[in-house]
Amino acid sequence: MTTDLPTDLLGPVLDDPTLAAVLEDAREGRVRALDLTGPEALRPFVTAGLVRAGRTVLAVTATAREAEDLVAHLGDLMDPDRVAYYPSWETLPHERLSPRSDTVGRRLAVLRRLLHPGVSTSSTSGSVNGPIDVVVAPVRSVLQPQVKGLGDLEPVELSAGDTASLEDLTRRLSDAAYTRVDLVEKRGEFAVRGGIVDVFPPTEEHPLRVELWGDDVEEIRAFSVADQRTLEPVERLWAPPCRELLLTEDVRRRAAELGASHPQLLELTDKISQGIAVEGMESLAPVLVDEMELLVDLMPADTHVLVLDPERVRARAHDLVATSEEFLGASWAAAAKGGSAPIDLGAASYRTLADVREHSLDGGRPWWTVSPFGLDPGAAGDSEQVVRDETGQVVHVDVDVTVGAVATRALAAGPVDAYRGDVARAMKDLDSWRSDGYRVVVVHPGHGPAQRMVEALSEAEVPARLVEPDGGEDLWQVGVVTVTCGALTQGFVDETNKLVLVTGEDISGQKSSTRDMRKMPARRKRQIDPLELKPGDYVVHEQHGVGRFVEMKQRVVGGATREYLVLEYGASKRGAPPDRLYVPADALDQVTRYVGGEQPSLDRLGGGDWAKRKSRARKAVREIAAELIKLYAARQATKGHAFGPDTPWQRELEDAFPFQETPDQLSTVDEVKSDMRQVVPMDRLVCGDVGYGKTEIAVRAAFKAVQDGKQVAVLVPTTLLVTQHLSTFAERMTGFPVVLKGLSRFQTDKEAAEVMRGMAEGSVDIVVGTHRLLNPDIRFKDLGLIIVDEEQRFGVEHKEHIKSLRTHVDVLTMSATPIPRTLEMSLAGIRELSTILTPPEERHPVLTYVGAYNDKQVAAAIRRELLRDGQVFFVHNRVSSIDKAAKKIRDLVPEARVATAHGQMNEETLERTVQGFWQRETDVLVCTTIIETGLDISNANTLIVERSDSLGLSQLHQLRGRVGRSRERGYAYFLYPPEKPLTETAYDRLATISQNSDLGAGMAVAMKDLEIRGAGNVLGAEQSGHVAGVGFDLYVRLVGEAVEAYRAAADGRPITTDDAPKEVRIDLPVDAHIPPDYVTSDRLRLEAYRKLAAAADSEGITAVIDEMVDRYGPLPEEVGRLVSVAKLRLIAKEYGLTDVNVSGTQVKIAPLDLPDSKQLRLKRLYPSAAYRATTGVVQLPLPRVEGGGVGAARVRDVELVQFIADLILSLDSKPSRSVLLEQTVEV
User: Fold this and answer.
1) Residues 1164-1179: what's their mean pLDDT?
2) Which of 24, 79, 496, 832 is deepest in the core (most CB within 10 A)?
3) Is the pLDDT of residue 766 over 90?
4) Are strands 499-503 and 492-494 parallel, antiparallel or unpaired?
5) How far apart are CA 538 and CA 567, in angstroms?
């Protein structure tokens, strides 16, 4: 076994005589059944000890959360690459829902490594696929049968230098159930473009780009989902399949037979038989494959099964089996219209724990348990081992008769006392242990707190040292307290061997609430936003107004192929067909999608309506902008407090943040700090969705203010948020001398008065409160920073109050409703703005089920949520009958604790109920739609809406946004009464919501809604009319321009915005377009055209070229010419030209205002040119190809573009060819 890494943390613990004897028994599997009793803290040590004794271990935990924690803990004691987590499906075996592709990919990767280990470890780049010593699995994975032979499925594997034909690679990825798309954004997808294949294996953090040269793999690189640009090279692609039921010929044949005999299953079986993966097909696995097997069967022969906390595991297993049976009843009752299940799917049901245990022992794999401390070891033998199955039968006796009674061994160590934040007592204990000759180690998760612990111990005159985990020093030493970094969260005291291990969590007593998110690597924000236009979508053309998109079309004009967007406008004569406008794809920056009213009327080409609407909107915008500028000027004139640079404590606090900050978070923190260091008071808005890490920014800003001796007020809209924020702030600031207090209506008057006195005296540093903080009787001694959370939820009068404070105090506002930048900036007093767009990676799309109401299904759904210690929202939108609904749920699920909440309760009762739900005192909250606003309870992950047919789309979406906020999978059940037919609109709404279940799609539903409602709400009625009139994007731009103009005036800069940016029409015989075989998908071609058209300078164009080469390979010649046209467009814009075209053999350029000197130069350089001063048109014949005489062909393509560029520049005395347009494409 490998003994590298910080094994010395493990060694002395294993020297304990009892444990050493136990591990001796483990060799060769001599003792088949054994119950060890010891504190929870020793579980990772026992597991790692078994590995040292030459065994492979299958560690079984009660829940997935415990399994993930154990994997992290084991990483401190052995090589983390040899520990694997085997996740369970987040669906039950009989649900008509498929498990997520990344769950399946991770499961199959583990099975593959067990049966056919590869060579890769984390020291090589790429996913780890080497051998495994420990598999950690929640009991759910151990009980669930899986299709036989999953470990033998071949992953798609490639390294640079291999040969693989493109067709073969595509086929293998499709066979492995990867979905083919045009742009890879999610795990389990792949895209093919030319000789480039993008794949996102479920086990990788980033998708991989495989570049083929013919049939040779040239290189493999990771790339970022956000901007699709490549990152570092990777050694190999290792892509396990994404489904556990692969559609082989055999499976397809059986599905067809099954459909023939059971017509009610046709919607599933038809697709399966055609080889199309369909949602929920796994539920039919038992009848589509030959046999199922258990995870235990795939473990090596020398495996030890180690069940941690067997009592909880048993209880969990029993509930799982019962719930699974309920779901079998519910799902197939629906299919068989009330009869029993039409086919026997029992083979997929969870096995009982006793069966699995017996099966494991029969296979020669010992079954050991580690029970928590506190069972009386004196009652050794079989007394506490009597376990009953569902029927109350004693099961263990049958198994154990053959093995003899299960022996119990008690380990000497006991758990550490919980200090619950009493640092002084912890210090005292550490010192007394040290002086009594114990060897003491303290483990902290972050480097900052570890360093701080050493300093605190030294201050208390306790000898302490900091040892890096892989520093090679001995950790266990007598006479000194050793502090190190690691993931362990529970400590123990072993009096026999004089060892003490204490963790940061033992001392602070805070179970890190943020630990859930530590596994979330940041997904970079999406900067790729293809202009997704479907035929029929409304668009706004800046010159012509609102039209409808018809199609993209290639046309050959003057011998040159170009691509156009075809837009349809209102008919110029009544009864005539609609007019069509062909917009060249290289002028796409003029076109945006229309977002505003529901059904805009189409403008007529050349009609005056559009111009009128645009000028009205522009006038209205100027009025808003003028207001804002007054505020801006007032703020610039005042002087506030300039905070100092960061202190060492600030750095410690930031080091202690237990997970990776996202790039957006880091840049926002920097912006906030630099604002605080200015004399002008800060006024910054941070926008970002729930869970995107806004609170951490607030924590750091507040801490910085306190370091400068200032007080901080954190203003939140609800009492529940006061509690949530207080616990977050307290957890992040433990160990620092910061006084935190809350102010809300849950306090008695006496407590509140005390907090207020502390604020006035200056003894309270940070106070978190509701709008009570804005009462006139509140006094601060020295307020330096106000943090406003969920700003959109405060009323106008509150905002006015904050605004009056804002002139001299720094204000940091946070809002989850993202309103695009310029608009937000314009609304809130021209404030600075930071947006956080990076979602936490592990947020899963919510599984959405739409169907008729069924008691069995509701009961099963609630039970399934309770099984993972979660909570449920049950929405019943009628106050009169809400108690009846709650009683019905109590009858359906007697073990659930049910509470009700609705808007007609008095406010205090309502807040107490919600607070109780947040503190997990109740399991099911039966409520009206009041939960749709801002209730953030990450533990509630199932939503059941009883009458979803009566709710609007945005309400459904808002409600669904309440669940799936943590790492757990969220479920939303939208039910309707089975006896009533659905109306057409209700059907459409429910169809939309069930299709858009993805996070991105969530934004699609929400953005549409937000843009329509948000613009109206925020701007008042008169503004929303203009938004509907000109479309949202253009409106936002107008606001931005107006504000910029006023801002320039306020700062004394020249005002540069003109009334409207001119459109440049370039119509030349240049074969410039993006060939469909270079970029196959329409939306990606549109995106490329749009980026080129929008590039504002030559650096911008270079960036677009780099990106295209990176994403699609070397540029073809036609694209090179398109780049030349884009560069010519920049020159034309610079000189204010609107028309550059060729008619017949003449080039026309307009408008050019040439004084006499320039007219002379034109005549001298181009004798055949003519200039009309009245219209400003320069006209000259097309030059002929060099060296050709009369009758030679006229120049075209790049030569022509270069000729025109030279002409425009030479008139301005700029050197000829100063803008090189031949795009040399060497890659």
Assistant:
1) 88
2) 79
3) yes
4) antiparallel
5) 9
